[in-house]
Amino acid sequence: QVQLVESGGGLVQAGGSLRLSCAASGRTLSRYSTGWFRQAPGKDREFAAAIAWNGGRTYYTDSVKGRFTISRDNAKNMVYLQMNSLKSEDTAVYYCASQRTPWDSANIADAREYTYWGQGTQVTVSS
Predict the structure, then answer these.
(1) Which residues pair with 127 in a beta bridge?
(2) What is the DSSP letter of 108?
(3) Terminal Cα-to-Cα distance of the chain (whole angstroms)
(4) Tens of pLDDT, residues 34-84
C-alpha cells in the first residue's frame, strides 16, 4: 500500500504561483508513474499532469501546458507540481495519485487507472 498526502495549496491571486507537494509513505513511489488531478466545484475530476517513474517522461493536459511543471524526487519519495501564471479557472481541489505501472502512455490521463490517491489540497485563485 502507498499513502499519499498533498500539501502546498492555498489562496493566491491570478498570475501568482504555488508549489504543491505529494509525500508518499508505506511503499516507495519510485517504481510508479504519478499524476495530479483536480476537481472544481460542480465539475468532474480532471487530469492535470503526470510523470513517469524515473521522471523521464511527463504529460500535461492542454490547459496547463507551459504553466505547470511536474517533477519528482525519488530519494525523498516526493512528487511536486509547480503552478505558475495561475488563473481563476485553476481553482480546484488538487489530488496526487499513483498508478501501479512505471508508465502507461495509453491510460496516463485516465483516473480509473490510478490505484493510490491522496485526500487533496485546495487551490483557490482569486481574480
Answers:
(1) none
(2) T
(3) 40
(4) 999 999 999 999 999 999 999 999 999 999 999 999 999 999 999 999 999
